[in-house]
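Subject: design request, 499 residues
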């Protein structure tokens, strides 16, 4: 059985705790590897390595740090197929989707090539007589990232690329369900010229997360995962004096106005609702058609499309729309929620629960499910299902539709499909959600903008990547300087003002 250890101080390190977690091939249901779960001593070793390497890295000029990112981008492109295959094998998503996972991370690495410009400070000449004031952005030191299973390439890169480009050393604690790609990324960073110790990957579970949260050297924690854990990580990290940004779960609504292009809206819902088996924090899980005739037309278009979804293993190549769920537990949970929706009285117009694939009977597959007549009191509406299940909730008016995402506890993404600019503009202005699509179903911002949800989808002040990433991983130091010619006066006893 393949054993996956850690990557500390630029080297592969075997796990010594004696504790392991199974890593599945979700398409076959087989355990394909075991990942080591780190002990406190292993986390301490990673932090010590990072702390020892960080000052020299911070003193390396930003242009040279950016060149490592440049080379890293080349290497990601060189190894794209290999990375995508390893990713699909552990996660289950299709190969084109796995490449998208890598590319969305690569784009943030590209953005980080601009570090020299992004790290430039501010300068005021002559703020007072002979006085100049300047501010600089300095790295925090050792920082950490804790990431989820559903984007094992993209989210680690969203964390470590800006952190490292800013001059920090990084401890990555990836998901224990698909740990191979994060280690491959760390190997590529070393090949790109990153000094040993600046990027460490420590595999583990809650024990390793708590070790990060309580470590006195680690200055900041970036987390992505489910909301209860995001809230827990945020509370414990900040109580320990760390900077934290923690992104959580979602329930993303797409509103379909009567004037929308119905074919376009239905296609958008199929891709955004069922792509990656719904295991995306930006998946659309609730469709809100406005008006009965819009709803009827939408259901009529959706049903055959959901029934025609092609589900299979990533090895089937491009001829698959989505793959299996990540684990047997995830499959059981999603099926359980579908059952609950039926009991609560929602109309299950397409039932994919009995889907089975010849030769892959033990894989964690299920077909697409479509619910109509969902109401906001139902559990399937309140909970993040994280599976290939789309709920249609009918609204009579635009205001009634708008109120649904507005009053939902999550605030990650949302979309509106309409041909009316006035409605779209009103929606974008009033909605209390972090990322908004107008005729775009999955509005994941491009790397040079920032990504982050509102309400229970995000805890902390700054978003991920874009300029916010550089702000999160640096702190400002402001220097007020006066040269000797200005020191001839006597002591000053009142607070200095810049007269
Ligand atoms: P998860 O919360 O189970 O795990 C995330 C990380 O936390 C993993 O590294 C895991 O090892 C660790 N962890 C798990 N349980 C823990 C505990 N009790 N104490 C401390 N650490 C713990 O999430 P997941 O299932 O890997 O990922 C899916 C979730 O992530 C979904 O809710 C999805 O919406 C969310 N997500 C959010 C975003 C976003 O940007 N908002 C992006 C991707 C995924």
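Subject: RE: design request

Done. Sequence follows.
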């Amino acid at each position: 059985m393949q054993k996956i250890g850690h990557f500390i101080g630029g080297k592969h390190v075997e796990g010594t705790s004696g504790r392991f977690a199974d890593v599945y091939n979700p398409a076959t249901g087989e355990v394909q590897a075991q990942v080591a779960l780190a002990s406190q001593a292993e986390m301490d070793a990673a932090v010590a390595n990072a702390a020892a390497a960080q000052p020299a890295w911070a003193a390396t000029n930003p242009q040279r740090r950016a060149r490592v990112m440049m080379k890293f981008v080349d290497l990601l492109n060189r190894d794209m197929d290999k990375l995508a295959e390893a990713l699909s094998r552990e996660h289950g998503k299709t190969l084109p989707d796995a490449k998208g996972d890598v590319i969305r991370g690569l784009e943030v690495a590209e953005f980080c090539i601009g570090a020299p410009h992004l790290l430039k400070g501010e300068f005021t000449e002559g703020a007072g007589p002979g006085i100049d004031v300047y501010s600089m952005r300095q790295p925090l030191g050792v920082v950490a990232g804790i990431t989820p299973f559903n984007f094992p390439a993209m989210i680690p890169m969203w964390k470590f690329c800006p952190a490292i480009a800013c001059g920090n050393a990084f401890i990555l604690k990836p998901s224990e369900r698909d740990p191979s790609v994060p280690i491959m990324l760390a190997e590529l960073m070393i090949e790109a010229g990153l000094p040993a110790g600046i990027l460490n990957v420590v595999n583990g579970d809650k024990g390793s997360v708590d070790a990060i949260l309580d470590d006195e050297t680690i200055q900041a924690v970036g987390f992505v995962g489910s909301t209860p854990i995001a809230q827990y990580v945020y509370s414990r990290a900040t109580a320990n004096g760390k900077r934290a940004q923690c992104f959580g779960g979602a329930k993303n609504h797409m509103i379909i106005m009567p004037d929308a292009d119905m074919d376009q809206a239905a296609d958008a819902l199929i891709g955004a609702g069922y792509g990656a088996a719904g295991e995306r924090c930006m998946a659309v899980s609730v469709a809100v058609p406005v008006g009965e005739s819009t709803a009827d037309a939408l259901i009529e278009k959706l049903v055959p499309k959901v029934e025609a979804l092609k589900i299979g293993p990533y090895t089937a190549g491009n001829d698959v729309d989505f793959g299996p769920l990540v684990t047997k537990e995830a499959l059981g949970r999603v099926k359980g929620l579908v059952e609950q929706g039926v009991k609560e009285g929602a109309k299950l117009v397409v039932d994919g629960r009995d889907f089975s694939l010849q030769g892959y009977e033990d894989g964690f597959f299920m077909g697409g499910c479509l619910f109509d007549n969902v109401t906001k009191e139902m559990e399937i509406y309140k909970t993040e299902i994280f599976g290939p299940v789309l709920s249609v909730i009918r609204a009579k008016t635009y205001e009634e539709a708008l109120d649904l995402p507005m009053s939902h506890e999550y605030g990650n993404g949302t979309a509106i499909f309409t041909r009316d600019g006035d409605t779209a503009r009103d929606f974008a202005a009033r909605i209390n959600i972090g990322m908004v699509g107008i005729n775009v179903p999955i509005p994941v911002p491009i790397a040079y903008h920032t990504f982050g949800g509102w309400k229970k989808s995000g805890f902390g002040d700054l978003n991920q990547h874009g300029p916010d990433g550089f702000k999160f991983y640096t702190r400002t130091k402001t220097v007020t300087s006066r040269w000797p010619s200005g020191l001839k006066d006597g002591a000053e006893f009142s607070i200095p003002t810049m007269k």
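The domain at 252-438 is CATH 3.40.309.10 (Aldehyde Dehydrogenase; Chain A, domain 2).
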